[in-house]
Every structure is written in structure tokens, then in C-alpha cells.
Design a protein that fits this description.
- There is one protein chain.
- By secondary structure, this protein is of the alpha/beta class.
- It has 13 helices and twelve strands.
- The strands form two sheets. Strands 1, 4, 5, 6, 7, 8, 9, 10, 11 and 12 form a ten-stranded mixed β-sheet that branches.
- The longest helix is centred in the first third of the chain and has 26 residues.
- It starts with a helix and ends with a helix.
- InterPro entries: Glyco_Hydrolase_99 (IPR026071).
């Protein structure tokens, strides 16, 4: 009996020790860490693990194929990780920018050192600071990213972004795109980043659409050429986004920023079936979504032969298209004319780090309430898709990417009292609501 009691005591002590160990381990992974997912998944890949896997892969014989070997521990770990994320909603798109650079990957800072742009009125301009930001502590943003002044070429950063996108249940990223060897006014060419982006997007079951920017010389001829280039180079990749139309065609979808800079006669040559040089019914046919800014653009978009409308701007009231009270009538116009309607929602807007005089367009985030109001307004209009402005347009303060409090000579805004992942959490909630509503609308 004494031996039994002794065994019982030993067993009890072991159980107490086990409980204590579990509690200690839990304490090592706090929920509030900016590097933890709101759904319990680590949001950033283990670089050392990745390097080890790369070394192991480099030592494998070239003739061994993936299908010839059992799943690696890394594959099983990824599958387990993906199961913890909510399913991607391919009707929720986020505008995504690859124009950031730093010395490690790009030899210099790119875009983080953005100029403070002068006001067009010389007298007004004299009252505001001008010059270039000086990263990494002083960047061209009113918020500071949790990943720091990162490079869009860093695989670690892109994979972290994919995990954040999946945490938010976003199914499609709409990458800002300039043709090869062309760039925006403040950056460098970025088309060569697309293969890496597609590869990591596929890993996380995310699709990639293209947001064609107003590059120098954009006209109906260069548009045909560049759409052809995108489809021929990237169209066969499994992460390349395609959408099945009402006619049963499975087509790529292109957002066209500042589409109004080309007149409807030019667009007609590209987009109308009746034109001899049209892209329609060729291997490069696609769904083309025009930017709606002014009310008069509705008729121009229809005349030009576009397939749909998006509104882009995250500032409610900034333009006719971005004014949320107009979305019901825009949706009605789209329904009457067989157009796709894609309202754009955002968490707020502030660009005074690069346009220090533009305070009138600032929209306070109100701890997420502005974003939720925008999402609610979009759903009330029963859209075909919802687009988010943006995942990471830091210059204009529209990002839902994780931001952290930052103390330096520059005073930054942050997401407090909420966690760095608050806007991912809000997006995930509304992506699920949108999915449920879409199913009801189709019944």
C-alpha cells in the first residue's frame, strides 16, 4: 500500500510539472506580439529553416522529382499552417505595391525616401516642408510598417505578406504594374519581381491580378502589346487570376488605373469587337476594369467597351466614384449595362508625409470604424467584387498591412489601442460576411 501511495505521489508530481511547463511555453508566445497571427499562425517564415531547406534541396540529385519522393516535413508544416488560415475569398481583392527597396536588396532605399511634394500654388508651397525623407527612421509614411523599411524583392517579406493576406482571407492581390524597364516617378522597374510574387502567392493559394498603371506612352497599341506580354509570360502560372464570365469564358482580369487619361475613341479601338485591331476574341482577350472618378466617366466607360468599373480611392467624398452614397446608383448603372461593379474600400487616408499640405483629404481610421463603415456600404450595393485600397500603399496611409508604434525624431501614427493585425482581422470578418451574402444573392 505504501508503494502504491509512493507511485501515486510520483505521478501527481509529474502531472504538476507538465502543467507548469505548458504554462511557461505559453508565456513565451504572447498573443499581443506583432509577429503573431490573430488566428494563432506565425506570420513570418523562419529564415534559418528556409535556408536549411534550400541547402538540402541543393544537395539532392537533379533527377529526383517532387512526385517521386514522400512529402517533406516542410510541406506538411505548410499544409498544417494553411489549414489554420481562413479560406481565401477570391471575390476580395487588395491593391498591392512592389515599389519599395532598401540597401540590402536594392543598393539604396526606394520609395521609403519619397519626396515631400510641393503644392501646385507656389505661394502655398512656401509654407510647407520640401525635401526627401531619410530612411530607415524617417520614411515617406505617416505609419511605420512592422517589417521596417523593407524591400519588395525580399522573399522573406513577400512570404510574410502572403501570410497576412491569408490571415485576412483575401484571395487576390492586384499588383501595381509597369511594363519592363519602365517605372513610376519615384521608383525603379518592378516587373522582374512578378515571378517571385507568383511563386509565393501559389504557395499560399492566393491569386495575382494586374493593376496597369498610366505609364508613359500608354495608348491602345501599347496596351495591346503589354496585355499580350503579361498573358504570354505569366498567364500559364497557376497563381495567375482568371474569372469565368457570364458567357462561360475563363479570362484574366485587369484593373486600369487612370483609364480616363485615354479617350473613349482610343479605348474603343482596343476593346470593341467591331474594331479590326481589337483585343477581343484573340488569345489576349480579358476583363478590363476602368477607374470611375467623375460621374460623366460612366458613359465614357460604357462607350469605350470596358467590362466593369472600380473606384480605387479610400477617401469617401474625394471623387464621385469614391463617394459611398453614390454606390447604389453606380451599381444600378452597371446592372443596366452588363458591367461589373467593384467598389474600393479602405481603412482611412493620410498622405501628409509626402503631401504635407493635403490635410483636407485625411480620413481618420477611428480605430477601425471608418473601414467597417466602408465595407458595410460596399456590401449594401451588392457588388460583384470588393477591392481594398490598399494592402501596402504606405505613402497614402491606406495600408492594412501590420504597423507598429515607432519612436524617433519623426512622429508616427499607429493602430493602438488595437493590435498590429487589427485591419487583417476586420477584413477577415467582412470577407466571411461577403461570402455569405454572395451565396444568398445567387439563390
Amino acid at each position: 500500500m505504501a508503494r502504491f501511495r509512493r507511485k501515486s505521489c510520483i505521478t501527481l508530481i509529474a502531472l504538476v510539472l507538465l502543467v507548469l511547463i505548458v504554462l511557461v511555453l505559453k508565456g513565451l508566445t504572447p498573443e499581443d506580439s506583432p509577429f503573431s497571427s490573430p488566428v494563432g499562425v506565425k506570420l513570418f517564415p523562419d529564415r534559418e529553416h528556409d535556408n536549411q531547406m534550400q541547402r538540402e534541396n541543393n544537395n539532392k540529385p537533379d533527377h529526383i522529382k517532387m512526385n517521386d519522393s514522400p512529402k517533406s516535413d516542410r510541406d506538411e508544416e505548410l499544409e498544417a499552417t494553411l489549414r489554420k488560415f481562413p479560406p481565401p475569398n477570391y471575390y476580395v481583392h487588395a491593391f498591392y505595391y512592389t515599389w519599395y527597396g532598401n540597401p540590402k536588396f536594392d543598393g539604396k532605399y526606394v520609395h521609403w525616401d519619397h519626396l515631400q511634394l510641393p503644392h501646385w500654388d507656389f505661394k502655398v508651397a512656401q509654407g510647407y516642408p520640401q525635401g526627401r525623407h531619410s530612411p530607415p527612421d524617417d520614411i515617406g509614411s505617416n505609419f511605420y510598417p512592422s517589417l521596417g523599411a523593407y524591400s519588395s524583392r525580399d522573399p522573406y517579406v513577400i512570404e510574410g505578406h502572403m501570410q497576412q493576406l491569408r490571415t485576412a482571407a483575401i484571395g487576390v492581390l492586384a499588383v501595381s504594374w509597369y511594363p519592363p524597364n519602365t517605372k513610376d516617378d519615384n521608383g525603379e522597374p518592378t516587373d522582374d519581381i512578378v515571378p517571385l510574387l507568383l511563386g509565393l502567392a501559389q504557395k499560399y493559394h492566393i491569386k495575382v491580378a494586374f493593376h496597369i498603371e498610366p505609364y508613359k506612352g500608354r495608348d491602345e497599341v501599347s496596351m495591346f502589346s503589354n496585355v499580350k506580354y503579361i498573358i504570354e509570360k505569366y498567364g500559364e502560372h497557376p497563381a495567375f487570376f482568371r474569372y469565368r464570365t457570364n458567357t462561360g469564358k475563363l479570362l484574366p482580369l485587369f484593373y486600369v488605373y487612370d483609364s480616363y487619361l485615354m479617350n473613349s475613341e482610343q479605348w474603343t479601338k482596343l476593346l470593341k469587337h467591331t474594331e479590326s485591331n481589337s483585343i477581343r476574341d484573340t488569345p489576349y482577350d480579358a476583363i478590363f476594369i476602368a477607374l470611375l472618378v467623375e460621374e460623366k466617366h460612366k458613359r465614357d466607360i460604357l462607350t469605350a467597351g470596358f467590362d466593369g468599373i472600380y473606384t480605387y480611392f479610400a477617401t469617401n467624398g474625394f471623387s464621385y466614384g469614391s463617394t459611398q452614397r453614390n454606390w447604389d446608383s453606380i451599381k444600378a448603372f452597371c446592372e443596366d449595362n452588363n458591367l461589373i461593379f467593384i467598389p474600393s474600400v479602405g481603412p482611412g487616408y493620410i498622405d501628409t508625409s509626402i503631401r504635407p499640405w493635403n490635410f483636407q483629404n485625411t480620413r481618420n481610421r477611428v480605430n477601425g470604424k471608418y473601414y467597417e463603415t466602408s465595407l458595410s456600404a460596399a456590401l449594401e450595393a451588392r457588388p460583384d467584387f470588393i477591392s481594398i485600397t490598399s494592402f501596402n500603399e504606405w505613402h497614402e496611409g491606406t495600408q492594412i498591412e501590420m504597423a507598429i508604434p515607432k519612436t524617433s525624431q519623426t512622429v508616427y501614427l499607429d493602430y493602438l489601442p488595437n493590435k498590429p493585425a487589427i485591419y487583417l482581422e476586420i477584413t477577415r470578418k467582412w470577407a466571411a460576411i461577403f461570402g455569405g451574402e454572395r451565396r444568398k444573392w445567387q439563390e
